Amino acid sequence: MVTGATGYVAGWLVKLLLDKGFTVHAPIRNPNDKNKTQYLDRLAALAPGTLRYFEADLLHEGSYDEAMQGCTLVFHTASPFVLSVKDAQRDLIDPALKGTRNILSSVNKTASVKRVVLTSSVAAMYGDNKDLLELPDQIVTEESWNTTSSLQHQPYSYSKTIAEKEAWKIQNLQQRWDLVVINPSLVMGPGISPEITSESFNIIKQLGDGTMKMGAPDFEIGIVDVRDVAQAHFAAGFTPTAEGRYIISGHNSSILEISKMLRDIYGNAYPFPTRKIPKLLLWLIGPLAGFSRKMISHNMGYPFRADNTKSIEELSMSYRPAQVSVVDFFRQMIEKEEVRGKKLEGRS
Prior knowledge:
Blueprint (H helix, E strand, L loop, with lengths): L1 E2 L4 H12 L3 E6 L5 H13 L3 E6 L9 H4 L4 E4 L11 H22 L5 E5 L35 H17 L6 E7 L1 E3 L10 H10 L11 E6 H13 L5 E5 L2 E4 H12 L12 H7 L7 H5 L11 H7 L6 H14 L13
Helix pairs in contact: 1-2, 1-7, 4-5, 6-12, 8-12
């Protein structure tokens, strides 16, 4: 069973499972909405596996019971990734925390389930780049936990932290099923469905549509291809020795480096930023763009590093080059006319 099957990461995971011949149970809010399911339907039509839809809602207790029947493996990927919300409790905390409780409550009632693979985030490991100064060797590892985020500051990171902690708490109260957690950094790359709502879409779009033409924030991040994240979930599900948490991050990068990756292919066809925006200027105008001054002061100019060794050694991960992920992502936006440039073909 794959929760959030129509989502960004889940779409590629469903494709992997279907291509391997598995029967995939896909609980979604409205199975009759063909606009949401048509992309998965096409995958299923070409694959040896079987796709079955069920009606379910993250916030409705027991709504996953039927979909979970007969499943030995549950992938819980459903959780929103948005940074700007009007009501953090309603839009982030409730879906993440209550959704996790509801899924694992159904797991506890379903005797066939042997393993749960949970999609968490590196955001559950640190809140701000400044936090890395307090970590051993100033690098994020599987031992790291976010202790600085809250409902008021970095609520998305807070939602991922409390949801993952709740999952471990529930798993530790029983012995029938085990839990493996995937902690991706910023996910990049094309979607199975062109309707992508991930925050990474907004970042890449703003790099190409002129929003950042005056300069990019001096913000270092980890990035990983969406197809690699799906592969990590698959490996976590089917590697018997997999256990604990796994940082899934291909590269330590920055917003400006991502812009350079695009400039190297598309040149001046799009208004990519070529310099960093001064931190003081961003501090002044940031609140108008939805960035709190605390978020700016605790992230801009601080390095980011994450250790992906465990995923390489235990899940046999091999990460795509960062430029492949970024350019494939941007190319999909060009095809959808989400961004418009002087020309629609990149340089070879």
